[in-house]
């Protein structure tokens, strides 16, 4: 009768030896062929809901980043006076919107939908204006 120690030792030995045996072209490394750019691997359920939960929590915690983002972007698009006033107002509205969207995403994370905000995290793609996706748009 084999004991557990012998089985684990044998499995470890096979795992260690296997790459050496499987190398039929000595001296040449194996490089898998990359998939074409148009082929996308679908995300798993766990990956989808964890991204949604993470973006929901971060949107609640970091919604205030919309304020300086919109002040800077509005100032760059127009002038300093309108950037400070209009950008602050726009940033305040987006702060409220991102916090509310984060709350909805956090509460409904088991449903595999895309995050409501685009970009999903406040620090991503800082130069573009925040957009809001339709509620409960399912992943393709």
Textual characterization of the structure:
There is one protein chain. The chain has four helices and two strands. The protein has a domain at 45-132. The chain is elongated and about 80 Å long. The mean pLDDT is 79. The longest helix has 28 residues, at 80-107. It has helices at residues 4-22, 45-61, 66-77, 80-107; strands spanning 117-118, 131-132. Strands 1-2 form a two-stranded antiparallel sheet. Helix 2 (45-61) crosses helix 4 (80-107) and helix 3 (66-77) packs antiparallel against helix 4 (80-107). It is an all-alpha fold.
Task: Give me some keywords for this one.
single chain; 140 residues; mainly alpha; 4 helices; 54% helix; elongated
Beta-strand share of residues: under 5%
Helix percentage: 40-55%
Outline: elongated
Through-space gap between termini:
52 Å
Number of DSSP strands? Answer: 2
The mean pLDDT is: 79
Order of helices and strands: HHHHEE
Name the structural class: mainly alpha
Total of DSSP H or I helical runs spanning 4+ residues: 4
List the uncertain runs: none
Oligomerization status of the protein chains: single chain
Q: Major beta sheet, specifics?
A: 2 strands, antiparallel
Strand order of the largest sheet: 1-2
Rg over CA atoms, rounded to whole Å, is 25 Å
């Amino acid at each position: 009768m084999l004991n557990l120690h012998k089985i684990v030792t044998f499995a470890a030995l096979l795992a260690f030896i296997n790459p050496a045996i499987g190398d039929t072209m000595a001296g040449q490394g194996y490089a898998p062929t990359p998939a074409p750019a148009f082929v996308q691997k679908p995300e798993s359920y766990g990956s989808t809901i964890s991204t949604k939960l993470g973006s929901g929590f971060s949107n609640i915690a970091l919604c205030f980043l919309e304020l300086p983002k919109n002040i800077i972007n509005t100032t760059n698009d127009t002038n300093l006076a309108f950037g400070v006033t209009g950008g602050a107002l726009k940033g305040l509205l987006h702060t409220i919107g991102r916090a509310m969207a984060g709350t909805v995403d956090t509460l409904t994370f088991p449903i595999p939908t895309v995050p409501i905000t685009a970009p999903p995290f406040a620090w991503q793609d800082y130069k573009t204006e925040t957009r809001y996706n339709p509620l409960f748009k399912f992943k393709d």
